[in-house]
Specification:
Number of domains: 1
Number of strands: 8
Structural class: alpha/beta
Helix content: 25-40%
Distance between the termini: 35 Å
CATH architecture: Alpha-Beta Barrel
Strand content: 5-15%
Radius of gyration: 19 Å
Strand order of the largest sheet: 6-5-4-3-2-1-7-8
Oligomer: single chain
CATH class: Alpha Beta
Order of helices and strands: HHEHEHEHEHHEHEHHEEHH
């Protein structure tokens, strides 16, 4: 197990290569690809590109304890309009049906609305990964109306339906402001089946445990949020906490790092491998560099060297059939019911 003495003074662990080193040195946890082989599974490979996930920067109005992006108000990494234009150029020549916009708080990128308008005008489905509180932040009062006008699907993080749990993970008054934002979205039709405006919530555990069954938890959320606050939504996604960035830092400091990786390994589910998001998603960072997924992006674990490395060099054929770079963090996506940006992978 990596020693706590390896923690750097500027922790949380922002250096992706340093995090990969810690993960790969964990004794007793086999390399992910060799574990796949032991279960009769071949090399992990993409099956096409159905989602272009664009991380438009790490600027955020919150600083959450579990954040794998290490985002916050002091971050200055913001995707430029030039790089966003490179993404639009790819969409003009490639059949990619979904653009998934993430951050940070993606809405704080000064070109967010410009980008959404252009992507929607191309007929693509747009997902906005929203922390909710940005919708009630000064200067963003008209943001819910903008999202509704352009029929943007909102995927909103709400790690619990209890105020004390959310505030413990995400900061004081985050829950109350999140409920205010949800009610604003509901007033515009979001979460109402007849409107066509999709509002999906995201749950992640408060600590080093796996999510409960997604269907059961969705029913709990629907009952509690509806009865307590009158909030409606379409679906709930459960996502496993990945052992990277701030969550990795917390695991190391609390002495639960190795136990958590062992838990992920013990819960490995071969059936989840077929649906992991990297097989149909291509991730773009704020500088335009390409990755297999958002988690690899945060670890600076780029595409295999023989592949195009930047959105300007996009090649649909090569990238759509690429071999995927893996590491021990990948056990997080294949534990239990599996985990992806669209929630659990099996047993829904």
């Amino acid at each position: 197990m990596p020693s706590l003495s390896l923690l750097r003074e500027d922790s949380p662990l922002a250096d992706g290569a340093y995090q990969v080193e810690l993960l790969e040195r964990t004794k007793g946890i086999p390399p992910f690809q060799s574990w796949l082989s032991q279960h009769g599974l071949g090399r992990l490979a993409a099956t096409g590109i159905e989602v272009l996930q664009v991380n438009v920067g790490r600027l955020c109005n919150q600083t959450c304890r579990h954040c794998h992006v290490d985002a916050g108000p002091d971050r200055r990494e913001v995707m430029t309009r030039e790089t966003l234009s490179d993404c639009l150029s790819v969409l003009a020549r490639a059949d990619i049906p979904v653009v998934d916009i993430t951050g940070g708080a993606p809405e704080l990128n000064p070109n967010f609305r410009w980008f959404v308008e252009h992507v929607r005008s191309s007929g693509r489905r747009v997902i906005d990964r929203c922390n909710l509180t940005v919708l009630v932040t000064s200067g963003q009062e008209d943001l819910p109306q903008f999202l509704a006008q352009h029929e943007v699907e909102v995927v909103a993080s709400l790690p619990c339906y209890l105020e004390e749990n959310v505030d413990a993970q995400r900061g004081d008054r985050v829950f109350a402001r999140s409920i205010e934002a949800l009610l604003r979205l509901n007033s515009l039709g979001y979460g109402r089946p007849e409107s066509g405006l999709m509002l999906n919530l995201v749950y992640n555990p408060l600590g080093p445990s796996l999510p409960p069954p997604q269907g059961q938890l969705e029913a709990d959320y629907r009952r509690e949020l509806g009865s307590r606050y009158g909030v409606a939504f379409n679906h709930l996604y459960t996502i496993t906490n990945m052992p990277i960035s701030r969550f990795l830092d917390d695991l190391l400091k609390s002495g639960r790092y190795e136990a958590y990786l062992e838990k992920l390994l013990a819960a490995f589910n071969p059936a989840a491998v077929a649906g992991v998001m990297c097989r149909t998603t291509l991730s773009v960072d704020w500088q335009g560099r390409l990755y297999d997924c958002d988690f690899n992006q945060m670890l600076d674990l780029g595409l295999l060297p023989e592949l195009p490395q930047h959105i300007r060099d996009f090649d649909a054929g090569r990238l759509g059939a690429r071999m995927i770079a893996t590491g021990k963090h990948c056990y997080g996506c294949t534990a239990g019911a599996g985990s992806s940006c669209q929630g659990s992978l099996v047993g829904n």
